[in-house]
Design a protein that fits this description.
This protein has 291 residues and is of the alpha/beta class. The protein folds into 2 domains: 3-140 and 209-289, Rossmann fold (3-Layer(aba) Sandwich); 143-189, no CATH class. The protein contains 10 helices and 8 strands. It has helices at residues 50-60, 87-100, 114-120, 142-158, 161-169, 174-189, 210-220, 234-245, 247-256, 273-289; strands spanning 3-11, 17-25, 32-37, 65-68, 106-112, 129-135, 224-230, 259-263. It has an 8-stranded mixed β-sheet. A hairpin with a 5-residue loop joins strand 1 (3-11) and strand 2. The chain starts with a strand and ends with a helix. 38% of the residues are buried. This is Hydrolase 1, exosortase A system-associated. InterPro entries: AB_hydrolase_fold (IPR029058), Hydrolase-1_PEP (IPR017531), Hydrolase_4 (IPR022742). Residues 49-151 form the Serine aminopeptidase S33 domain. Residues 193-212 are annotated as: Disordered.
C-alpha cells in the first residue's frame, strides 16, 4: 500500500508552534487514526526509531498515523511542561490530526511509559478519543520501586546458585548487600504519609499522587483500552504490582482494560526488530478488530 508522509505545524493553547508528521495510506481500513504520544521529553522518533516504524506499519494496514513533538521538545516551540501537564499539547495534536485527516472520525492514543501515564492524566479526556493503548505505564514511587526490587530482584537473587557460590567463597560483601535489602524493605512496607483526596472539589487542584490520578482517569474513560506489558522490565512489574495490590486499580483494570498483551522477554522500549514489529502488529490488529 502506498503511504504519504507529510510534515505540518499546529499550535497549542499557549500559541507555541508544534511539529507533526502524518502517515496517510491511500486506502483507509476504518475511521480511526493512531496518534503516538511519546514518553517524557523525547523526540517524536522514539527510542530505536520505534514510533517511526509503528506509524508506518499502521499506515500500511490502512490506519492513518501521526507523530508529534511536545512543547519544548524536538522541533516544537515552548518549554516542556512535564508528563503530568502535557494533556493540552495532546489535545491540540488530536485537533490537528482530525483537521489534517478529515476521513477519520475518532483517534486512538498510543503511549509508552510516561506517555501512557499522560494519557490517563488528561490526554484521553478529549471527546474524539475512542481507543487508548498503554505500554508499560509509569507509576513509579519510592515505595513502589522498593517493593518491585524486593519482589522481583532480591527474591530472584536468593534463588541464584551464583549468589550462594559468592557467599560461601567470601566474594560477596554481605553487610552491603543486606543493607540495601533492608533499605528497600523499609521503603516498601513502612506506612506512607496519607494525602487527602481533593479530586471531588472543583475549587481545589487534585494533589493526589499521580498514580492515583491515573486510576481516576482510566475509570472515567469510556472507550476501549489495550494494555501491553514487557516481560523483562521493572517498570512493567511495578505497574503489575500496583494493579494487583490496590483494590481500586484492580477493579478499574477489570472493568476498563479490554485486552492485555504480554510480550515475553522484551525490555522497556522493545529495542530489537522482532519486539518492535510485534508491538506494531499487535496494535494495528487490535485497532482493526475493535471498531
Amino acid at each position: 500500500m502506498t503511504i504519504k508522509e507529510t510534515t505540518f505545524t499546529f499550535s497549542n493553547p499557549q500559541d507555541h508552534q508544534m511539529i507533526g508528521i502524518l502517515h496517510h495510506p491511500d486506502t483507509l481500513s476504518g475511521t480511526v487514526g493512531l496518534l503516538v504520544v511519546v514518553g517524557g521529553p523525547q523526540y517524536r522518533i522514539g527510542a530505536h526509531r520505534q514510533y517511526v516504524h509503528m506509524a508506518r506499519h499502521a499506515a500500511r494496514e490502512g490506519i492513518p498515523a501521526m507523530r508529534f513533538d511536545y512543547s519544548g521538545v524536538g522541533d516544537s516551540q515552548g518549554t516542556y511542561p512535564g508528563f503530568e501537564q502535557v494533556a493540552p499539547d495532546i489535545h491540540s495534536a488530536i485537533d490537528a490530526f482530525l483537521h489534517q485527516c478529515p476521513q477519520i472520525k475518532t483517534v486512538a492514543l498510543w503511549g509508552l511509559c510516561e506517555g501512557a501515564s499522560a494519557l490517563l492524566l488528561g490526554g484521553a479526556a478529549h471527546p474524539a478519543v475512542s481507543h487508548i493503548v498503554l505500554a508499560n505505564p509509569w507509576v513509579r514511587s519510592d515505595s513502589g520501586l522498593a517493593k518491585a526490587y524486593v519482589k522481583h530482584y532480591y527474591w530472584d537473587r536468593l534463588k541464584s546458585p551464583d549468589l550462594w557460590r559468592k557467599v560461601f567463597s567470601g566474594g560477596l560483601n554481605l553487610k552491603a548487600a543486606f543493607s540495601g535489602l533492608w533499605d528497600n524493605v523499609q521503603k516498601a512496607f513502612l506506612p506512607q504519609k496519607n494525602i487527602d483526596d481533593n479530586s471531588s472539589s472543583s475549587k481545589q487542584p487534585d494533589t493526589r499522587p499521580f498514580p492515583d490520578r491515573m486510576q481516576t482517569g482510566l475509570a472515567a474513560f469510556s472507550g476501549k483500552s489495550l494494555l501491553i506489558q514487557s516481560g523483562n522490565d521493572l517498570t512493567a512489574r511495578e505497574f503489575d504490582d500496583l494493579i494487583n495490590s490496590d483494590t481500586q486499580w484492580k477493579e478499574t483494570i477489570a472493568l476498563k482494560i479490554n485486552q492485555r498483551i504480554d510480550i515475553a522477554d522484551t525490555d522497556h522500549t522493545f529495542s530489537c526488530e522482532k519486539w518492535r514489529a510485534e508491538v506494531a502488529k499487535s496494535t494495528a490488529n487490535w485497532l482493526k478488530s475493535s471498531p
